[in-house]
Amino acid sequence: MTATATKRSNVGDRLLTGIERVGNKLPEPFALFTILFLITAVVSTAMAWGNVVVHVPGKDEPLAIKGLFTGEGLAWFTTTLGENYIGFPPLVTVATILLAIGIAEKSGFLAAAIRFTIGGAPRWLLPYTVGFVGVVGSIMADSAFVVIPPLAALAFKAAGRHPVAGLLGGFASAGAGYSTNIFPTSLDALFAGITNAVIPTVPALANHATEANPLSNYYFNIVAAVVLSCVAGFVIDKVVEPRVMRAGVSKDEVNPETGQLMTDTRAMRVVGDEQTVAESREPQVEAELSPREKKALLWACVTFVLIGVALTVFTLLPSSPWRNEDGNFLPKSPLLASIVFIIFVFFSVSGYVYGRIAGTVRGFKDVPVMMGAALKDMTSFLVLAFILGQFIALFNWSGIGSWIAVTGASGLENAGVTGFPVIIGFIILCSILNLFIISGSSMWTLMAAVFVPMFGILGFEPAFIQAAFRVGDSATQVMTPLNPYMVVLLAMLRKYEPSAGLGTVMARMIPFVVPFWVVWVLILMVFYFLGLPLGPGVGIMITH
Is residue 292 in some structural domain? Predict the structure, then answer.
C-alpha cells in the first residue's frame, strides 16, 4: 500500500470512528424522543407565555402557540395520553400488514422465493439478480439483512464466482435500497401514516394536499427499484468482485484462528463477543429448494396470481363498490383506501398455501401463532410508537409545527432558495442524520413534523417530500457503524477474511452508497422536472 493510500485510509478510519463515537453518545430512540418531547414542552410553554402567534396560510385568524406546562396544556395531555398513542396513524396500517407478511415470512414463502430467484439465475446475470432481490427484499423488513447475504454468497460460489462479492452485494442492496420496492410494504404504510399525522397542522395543506397512502410513492418506487437493482448489479460485477479478487480474499471459508482453509464450513466461526452474538442470529441456509419446497412455491405463486386476477375483475366491474361517486378511482376512492386489505389478502393467503404444501403450516391453528410471532418482532416499534405518538400530538396541538413551517418557508422564500435545490439540501440533511439515527420511523417522525408543513407551504405535495426522504434515509445506512446488522455482516465476512473489521465492511459499502445516492436523486429529478405522478393520483406540486 502506498503512503497516499495509507493516508486516505487513516482519514477514512478517523471519520468512521468519529461517526461511531458521536452516534454511540446518542440516546436510544425512545429516550431521544422523550427528550425531544420535553424540549418541545418547555419551548411551547415559553412561547405561550410570550404570546407568540403565527399567521398560518388558510386561517383567517392568527394561531396562538399553546404551551404544555399551562393549565390548558396539562388538561389536554392528561386526557389524551391514550388517544395520542392508539391514534398514532402508522399503528393501524403497519400492524395489519405485518400480520399478513408474518404469515408469508414464517411459513417460509418469502425466503423460498428469494432462494429460487437467486439460485436459478445464470452466471452472468447473478449480480443483477442479487441486486434486485436485495432491493425488493425490504418486504421482509430487517430479516433481509440476515437472510439475503448468505444466500447470495452461496449462489455466487456455486456459479464459480467470488462468494464475498455476493455477500457484500446482497447486504448493500438490501440496505441502500431499503425504502423502495416493486410491492407495497409495511414501510409504505408506516411513512404514509406519519405523513398524514402532520398534514392537518397547516389548513392550506390539509385542504388542498393529497392525503398519503401506501401507494403514494408507488410509481417512483417501481422505477427506483428497477434502476437501483441494475446499479447494484453493475457495482457488484464491475467494482466489488474485481476488488475482492485483487485483494486476495479467499473463496473458501477460513479458520479465523489459524488462517487455514476450513474443511468443516460450519465450525469455528466465533471471533470475539460481538461476533458470537451476531453468529447466533445467522440462519443456516441452503441455496437449492427441495422438490416439496418447489411445489409449494409454485402453488403459492399461482395463488398470488389468481388473487390478483380476482381483485382486478372485482375492481373493474362497473358496479364495483371500490369506485368513487364519479365511478372512478382517482384521486380518492374506496380502492385506494383498501390497499392495506389488498396487501393482507395477497401475502396471508399465499403464505398459508405455501406453508400447507411445504409442511411448515400444519393447519389454520398455526396462523395465529405466526401472526403472534410477527407482532413479537415489532414489539420494539409498538413501544416506540407510544412516545412518537405523544411527540407528534404535542407538536401539532401546541402550534410549534405550524410556526416552524411558516417561519422556515418564509425564510427560504426570502433567501430565494426554492424549487429542487431545497429538496437536494433536504436529502443531504437526511443522509447525514441517517448516519446517526438508524430507525426510519424515528427519523421520519422527526423530519415530517418539520418539513412536510414547511415544504407544503412552498407548494410541494407531502408525498413528494416523503419520496425525497426515502433517498436520504436509505443510501447511507449500510456505511454507518451504528447499523446493528453491520456486526452480522462482519461475522459472515470473517469466514473468508478473518482480519476484516468494521472499517473493512464500511469501505466495501462505499462503492454502493455513492452511485445509489446519485442515481436515486437523478430519478427524483426526472419525476420533478417532467411532472410525473409519484403514485396513483399523486403529483409533485399541490394544485389548488
Answer: yes
Using the Cα atoms of residue 360, residue 365, residue 367 and residue 370 in order, give the sign of their dihedral. negative
User: Cβ distance 506 to 479 under 8 Å?
Assistant: yes
The SS3 call for residue 32 is helix
- Residue 442 contacts residue 90 (beta carbons within 8 Å): no
The answer to whether residues 494 and 444 touch, using CB atoms and an 8 Å cutoff, is: no
- If one counts every other C-beta atom within 10 angstroms of the C-beta of residue 127, the result is 27
The predicted structure's pLDDT at residue 85:
92
Question: In terms of pTM, does the model score above 0.70?
Answer: yes
Going by C-beta distance under 8 Å and a sequence separation of 6 or more, which residues neighbour residue 107?
351, 352, 354, 355, 358, 360, 361, 370
Is 13 inside a domain boundary?
no
d(C-alpha 323, C-alpha 34), whole Å: 43
Please check whether residue 540 lies inside any domain of the structure.
no
DSSP reduced 3-state for 288 = coil
* 218-235 vs 462-475: helix crossing angle, rounded to 10: 20
Rounded CA-CA distance 12/18 in Å is 10
Closest among 171, 98, 159 to 131, alpha carbons compared: 171
CA atoms within 13 Å, Cβ hemisphere of 366: 17
Q: Which grid coordinates belong to 444? A: 421520519
What does the alpha-carbon distance between residue 190 and residue 176 come to, in Å, rounded to a whole number?
18
Find residue 54's DSSP bridge partners. Answer: 63
Cross-strand bridge partners of residue 538: 535
Q: pLDDT-based confidence at 199, cuts 50/70/90?
A: confident
Task: Please give the residue range of the domain that contains residue 282.
Answer: 28-530
What 3-state class would DSSP assign to 88? Answer: coil
Q: Does residue 2 form part of some domain?
A: no
Any alpha helices (H) in 109-212, and if so which ranges?
109-119, 126-136, 143-158, 163-176, 186-198, 203-208
Q: Is the dihedral of CA 3, 9, 13, 14 positive or negative?
A: positive
Distance (Å, rounded) from C-alpha 277 to C-alpha 242? Answer: 31
Per DSSP, the three-state class of 365 is coil
Determine the number of helices (DSSP H) and then strands (DSSP E) in the chain: 24, 2
pLDDT tens digits, one per residue of 423-447: 999 999 888 888 777 777 778 888 8
142 falls in which pLDDT band (50, 70, 90)?
A: confident
User: Which DSSP state fits 53?
Assistant: E
Element (H, E) at 55: none
Cα–Cα distance measured from residue 494 to residue 257, given in angstroms and rounded to the nearest whole number: 11
For 253-274, the DSSP string reads: -B-TTT-PBPSSTTS----HHH
Tell me how far the alpha carbon of residue 239 is from its chain's centroid: 25
Q: Which residue has the cell 479478487?
A: 245
Total domain count for the chain? 1
**At residue 468, does pLDDT exceed 80?**
yes
